[in-house]
Amino acid sequence: MQPYSALSVIWNGLTGQRDWSRQWRDREPKSAYDVIVVGGGGHGLATAYYLAKNHGIRRVAVLERGLIGQGNAGRNTTIVRSNYMLPGNREFYEHTLKLWEGLSHDLNYNLMFSQRGHMALHFDPAGRDAWARRYNTLRMTGSDGRWLRRDEVRARAPYLNWSPDARFPIEGAFVQERAGTARHDALVWGLARAADARGVQIVQNCEVTGFIREAGEIVGVETSRGEIRAPKVALCVAGSTGPLAAKAGLKKLPLETHKLQAFVTEPLKPIVHTVVSSAQEGLFYLSQSDKGGLVFGGEIDGHPSYAQRGGPRIYSEVMEKAVALMPWISRVRVLRQWAGVLDMSMDGAPFICTTRVPGLYFNAGWNYGGFKATPASGWCYAHTIAKDEPHELNAAFSLDRFARGAMLDEEASGPTPRLH
Ligand SMILES: Cc1cc2nc3c(=O)[nH]c(=O)nc-3n(C[C@H](O)[C@H](O)[C@H](O)COP(=O)(O)OP(=O)(O)OC[C@H]3O[C@@H](n4cnc5c(N)ncnc54)[C@H](O)[C@@H]3O)c2cc1C
Hints:
The chain is α/β, with parallel strands linked by helices. It has 9 helices and 19 strands. The chain has helices spanning 6-14, 42-55, 89-107, 125-140, 150-156, 184-197, 241-247, 312-325, 370-387; strands at residues 35-38, 60-63, 79-80, 118-122, 146-149, 172-176, 180-181, 201-203, 208-214, 217-223, 226-229, 232-235, 255-265, 275-278, 284-288, 294-297, 334-345, 351-354, 360-364. Strands 5-6-4-14-15-16-13-17 form an 8-stranded mixed β-sheet, sandwiched between helices. The chain binds flavin-adenine dinucleotide.
């Protein structure tokens, strides 16, 4: 792999950009590997990268049914934060934020990770107390977070609605300064490039359609390009988990597939310098991309579906929320809108685990928060696959936690996937 450096940028600038090598190779599938990772999203690619890097396992294939990064990895609003409170979640998300802080250097690829801060607005004393509990927990466990008074929030975000008649009168906010945004396709390409350089084979347009079993064990997969064998098969297919896992014998999973929409406006001059979120009467989150577009979203569509498009109810709810928080936005044009297909779990927390089917490994349940989790998810999943047991960071993310009453219900929303 050709390393990226200031020198190589200058050299190529002087020589007509002719000396760049391909970032990664799209391979023909081989008949056998040591590990097959199903799904070429961020989590699948990160898993393959850390299998090679941390565990020296290089005969790894990532099988992707379409093109890498065309799932949720390339469809999200790129918010990265670690303001999770429950033991189990907290350590995992702090680990992912720490990995993010060194990931551009590790991958030798600019992920445009911008630690511009994440402000969670509150509008009344109950909201303040709930957030205070969370952010105090963060501070007491080695992460960062602090409270901003109304005037401090106003100084940072004068574009919000500060009118005395505002529908949502802002009282203050809790901020995590190390949080921020990153470039989603750069994460996919950076991981693909670094994994390829360590011997991982990325195979696109190769849909896994079934599993090969011998004596009750999974020993490979059936694909649109023929059979491929491996003693370890690791699922990483987000919203497609239910139907695919059922083919491997995992039925009745604690998951539902839902849709989440995102919206981008025409480019504006820099206005929004942090990520802003509000949980008042439904979720709303906002940031501004490096190209100037305001990127925002809200709740999931609310009914299970595999269709990669969103419905008008959420569209209008998100617009109402945007206008209530920033009345001037009614004069800005929305240029793009799309939806991704999410793997929503019963308690809002993910799964990274072995399964009762020998040879099958499970990674799913990322809800609407799996982009930030990508590095730690790959890191922990690679450990679980290599060692056949979870790392302590993902020990809580097991499939049997519901049977044991050990749910990780961060939002305290109960066993209703659409509410997490
Ligand atoms: C609109 C939206 C906004 C979001 N915003 C945020 C955010 O701000 N912050 C955050 O942290 N998270 C966010 N998320 C969530 C985040 O995008 C996902 O949790 C994360 O990207 C999941 O990554 P993944 O690699 O597991 O899934 P994906 O990127 O979806 O990858 C799964 C891959 O598996 C492939 N696949 C499926 N079936 C098969 C098969 N049978 N054979 C082979 N390949 C198969 C798919 O083609 C796909 O490429 C958002 C999601 C959406 C939709």
